[in-house]
Amino acid sequence: MGRRTVSDICLSGLLNYRKIKTNSLVSNQEDEMGEQESKTVAANQQPLSVALGLAPAIREHAAEAEQERRLPEELARDMARSGLHKLASPTYANGTERDPLTQIKVIEAVSEADGSTGWNLMIGMEVQGFAAAAFPPERALQLFGDPEIIISGALNPLGRATIEDGGIRVNGIWPMASGCHNSDYFWGQCILVDDDGKFKRAKAGQVQLREVLALTYEVEILDTWKSSGMCGSGSHDVKITDLFIPDDRVTRVTEQKPFANTSLFRIPTYSRLAYNKFAVASGIARAAIGHFKTLACEKKPRSTSALLCERTDAQRAIAEAETCLRSARAFVFESVSEVWMATEEGRSVSAESRALLQLACSSGVQSACKAVDRMCAASGVNVIYSDSLLGRCQRDIHVVPQHITVSPQWTEAAGRVLFGLASEVPIL
């Protein structure tokens, strides 16, 4: 494949690519862009209201997304046009840099409508935010200024790259690239290798990493996402074969600080990755409680004339689920607020604050899982059917703690830091 130039990534090219994907040609591109910008402004002003406004469409397409193992293109584009993918991006790249609690509430609202869609949005927000901050402001605006941009990514160094004049040549396969079918770019991490395939190392001995921004039509999407939960997130593998990436689409996140230096980008990286994962779990758990409440007020268990909601075991179940979820959410909001206050005041985030936030998010996801399981156990046989909304919540939520950033393994690591001992893991 030949080398790409800056013209390959111009906004008009991306718009044409989207038109081909959606088969929805428009006669007046200026009107289309004006409508997009108008919706983005609305999202900038009231992102939670915009998310709630999208909820009916998200619920309507949830079963389709689960069956097709990806979001419908129209739904993905509606979320992008609304500005929700811009909430974690720097203002210099046409982002809105919303505070962490606003981001959490938006992701919760979308995840309550459908967990896979919430996960898809969460990943898109994160990847676009981190990628835009890794490029110089002028270049970031060129790449990500389009209000409709969607980015997928995988920052695990599974690619291999060799240095060439003006860029690097890349090969690799990255699993679990959520939202890849709907994205305009894929941002993947690589290890630099020499001509013999041996790792290139810095003076200190560590391998040298690079991230590459490929247009989605330059990569191959492998049909690998055949999961038990979060089926609609479209987290398929992405394969790149012998692709030249010019230097102006290459970043070095492990070697340089973000170009954005505002409060949001002074929050430790792993903290940002953790609280948004909790938001997905929290939204799914809230949905499960709502589904159970509806069911319990309509269902009469066998051999009784009373509604399920009139039984003490059901009443105990919903009380326990609310306790699990609300206490976990309060802990997350408290710890996130402490970290945000520190960055807003220009202070460094203490090791204890990082540990508490990680503990809140990891344990919070576990609590959300318990709340959903409690609702499912109390609902009876209904949950076993594939079209059960509660059943989907249970399938989806148990995917969340499998993500390394909210794994329960960090509980002991956080406890060590709370004793005043030095952290032994990079996440803290």
Structural features:
428 residues; alpha+beta; Butyryl-Coa Dehydrogenase, subunit A, domain 1; Butyryl-CoA Dehydrogenase, subunit A, domain 2; 13 helices; 13% strand
Give a brief outline of the structure:
With 428 residues, the protein is α+β, with helices and mostly antiparallel strands.
Notes on the structure:
With 428 residues, the protein is α+β, with helices and mostly antiparallel strands. The chain has 3 domains: 6-144, Butyryl-Coa Dehydrogenase, subunit A, domain 1 (Orthogonal Bundle); 152-251, Butyryl-CoA Dehydrogenase, subunit A, domain 2 (Beta Barrel); 267-418, Butyryl-CoA Dehydrogenase, subunit A, domain 3 (Up-down Bundle). It is 50% helix and 13% strand. It has 13 helices and 7 strands. The protein has helices at 11-22, 29-45, 47-68, 73-81, 100-113, 115-134, 137-144, 263-266, 269-296, 312-344, 351-379, 389-397, 410-418, and strands at 151-164, 167-177, 185-192, 209-215, 220-222, 236-246, 250-251. A 7-stranded mixed beta sheet has the order 5-6-2-1-3-4-7. Strand 1 (151-164) and strand 2 form a beta hairpin. Helix 9 runs antiparallel to helix 10 (312-344) and helix 11 (351-379) packs antiparallel against helix 12 (389-397). The protein is globular and about 80 Å long. It starts with 10 loop residues before the first helix and ends in a 10-residue tail after the last helix.
